[in-house]
Amino acid sequence: MQKRSDMDTQTEGIYSDRIDPNSSVSLSKQLEMIFRSFIKDGIWLPDQLIPSEMELCKMFLVGRGSVRTAMKKLEDHKLVYRVRGRGTAVIPKQLDSTIPFTGVQEAIWKKSKENHEELKVLFQEERSVDGHAAENLRLSLGDKILYVERCTVTEKMEQLRSFQYIYIPYMFYKRIDRTKIGVCTFHELFSQAGIFETDREEWLSVSSVTKKESEKFGIEEGAPVFILEVLRYDQEDRPFYYMKIVRLGESLKVHFSTR
Q1: Could you tell me which residues come within 8 angstroms of residue 190 by beta carbon, excluding any fewer than 6 positions away?
Q2: What is the mean pLDDT of the chain?
């Protein structure tokens, strides 16, 4: 997370001329539109702390209630997010409204690259499968799987952008070189083992972060996220890879399939 914007937060009334107290438009709405322009014009940058409510009050010579109402509107429209104990920051660009045929995951990877995010493997272990993953992978409860957790972080600020859970059935992960996880992509590892994706399904839905995830993201519990689930099938129509991605997101749900 970067320091606060280089915008001068010390000069009292520096932006007071942008407010029209005689306008029929409320002060909070005027502030909201100004804040939106700061984001659009790059004055407030993604993952950068913006001035605090008190600083904004001084800069615009307005009451804290008007600033708070304007900031709440930006939060509701997924333009900013709270960082526990630090302040408020701008949310990076999200998915484009047009999703390519290659799938939602490809759109996310493309946006991650634009945001200069780095993929990191947190840990991996053999464990017994349960719940939703077992159903998707056509496994029985208790069957052995390889479980991997990884995340993407912004290169400079080390700010967590997504958290990922990966499940691979034993009959497939025993064929890949686990020592290269984190060095090679899973696509490369599977290809080297003669396992090729011929079909996939994707589901995108909106939810809110759990307590565990809020601690990892450093944001308030209940903040909006989208959940992307990816299920890949091999050349014999067997599901061999199930991934769940948790990421700050938009309000939509998509089911993508090549089947």
Answers
A1: 172, 176, 196, 197, 240, 241
A2: 82
Rounded distance between C-alpha atoms, residue 158 and residue 177, angstroms: 28
- Measure the CA–CA gap between 214 and 251, rounded to whole angstroms: 19
Closest CA to 218 of 118, 115, 99, 84: 84
Amino acid at site 167: Y
Sign of the alpha-carbon torsion through 167, 168, 169, 173: negative
Is pLDDT of 252 > 50? no
Dist CA 61 CA 143 (whole Å): 63
Closest CA to 111 of 125, 92, 134: 92
Tokens (6 digits) for 183: 């060095």
Separation between Cα atoms, residue 195 and residue 149, nearest integer Å: 21
Q: Per-residue pLDDT tens for 115-163?
A: 677 888 999 999 999 888 998 999 998 899 999 999 888 766 567 788 8
Closest of 237, 205, 203, 239 to residue 224, by C-alpha: 205
Q: pTM surpassing 0.70?
A: no
Closest Cα partner for 191 from 178, 202, 175, 179? 175
| Maximal C-alpha separation, the chain | 71
